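ok so dumb question maybe but i'm new to this and my supervisor (M.) told me to 'just get the structure for TRAP transporter large permease protein' and walked off. so i did the thing. is this what she meant?? sequence i used:
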Amino acid sequence: MSPTLIACASLVLMLALIWAGMHVAVVLAVVSFVGVWLIKGDPGIAANLLAQASSDAIASHIFGVVPLFVLTGFLVAMADIGKDAFEVANQLLRRLRGGLGIATVASNAVFAAITGISIASAAVFTRVAVPEMRRYGYNPQFAVGVVAGSSVLGMLIPPSLLMILYGFLSNQSVGDLFTAGIVPGLLLALAYAVGIVVMSFVWPRSVFASGAPLPSNDADLMPLGTLVRKIIPSVLMIVAVLGGLYAGYFTATEAGAVGALLALIIALLRRKLNARTLWSVLTETGHVTVSVSFLIICATIYTRMLAMSGMPQFLVETMAQAGLGATAFLMLYVLIVIALGMVVDSSSILLIVLPLMLPLAEGFGMNLIWFGVVTVVAVEIGLLTPPFGLSVYVIKSTLQDESVSLGDIFRGTAPFTLMMLTVLLLLIFFPAISLVLLK
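this is what came out, is it supposed to look like this??
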């Protein structure tokens, strides 16, 4: 059996094992080990590759960015900073038609600029925003749909755990990826806001249960002093982390450390932490970090196996003979990523497709920072699409309302999925949107 055929068989076997329920990292390691064994005919070489990749994959101080930003995310959620951001946005936008929906998008964007974890955003705003929207007469499907749709901002607006993973897999600067994600993230948030306003006028029953918004209650107005006090922590975190990173005062790893320290101070000042909850946060941070580390190690092994097989070169030659250009390749790639997103989680998609597709992107002369932004947006669409739709399942498990079914949530996310697809096309055909801050 030729090395290329072995690599093709490994891809099919890998997808079958993942869909059968085996952990993605374990599948990558096993398939890569067997693949190298068959290509070289020696299990000793495969074992040595496994050991070497385990050492090389995360043996860098740069990898410290992962636990630091994960810790920041957990501490921010613990300190109720997301809840405060929503309350402030609600006060500022309450008189705008569809204002609560836009407030959810705005507060998710703020939360994303601090944490970078979509699942955390989905869980936090399901508890905070959905009951408030229901109280003011919003359609339940719209309420859960806008939370699910805006939660994906967490992986696009920096800091982003998915961009960190992409940076490791593609050997690109995490800081540059963070910078490149700012404008596309704000563009997506703006698209959501405009879409909500349009829906509230053109198709009001999709937004409001009775077809019209309930009148706001002026008794709920927040005093100016309280509003300022609630927004200060969010502004401080964003200015310190993103401002310092973009101004070049510190690296992405150092930005993670600054964010974690500030989040810890805010949580302590608000008396949201004690010895028990702090230990729980640290333990969860360790669990996530170890999981990501294992994934990166196994993805490194898989990448080396594919390189050894000559599969990337074979695909480049095949596409050249078929007359496929860069645009056709990119469209095919996006379709594959979105299709995988329907059944596989975000990190797994990156681990599966990037080792194979990055050499092709380089062969077509694509900017890998821009390619990373396009990849993240395409992957995040999968968080909203059935049958997997991880954000949808998180919302369903967090929502204490049996009257809202899983199908209702998927239907509620459909308009936001279409908005994401529109923004994705803009990013594909206008790369300058992603690269404007890097010039």
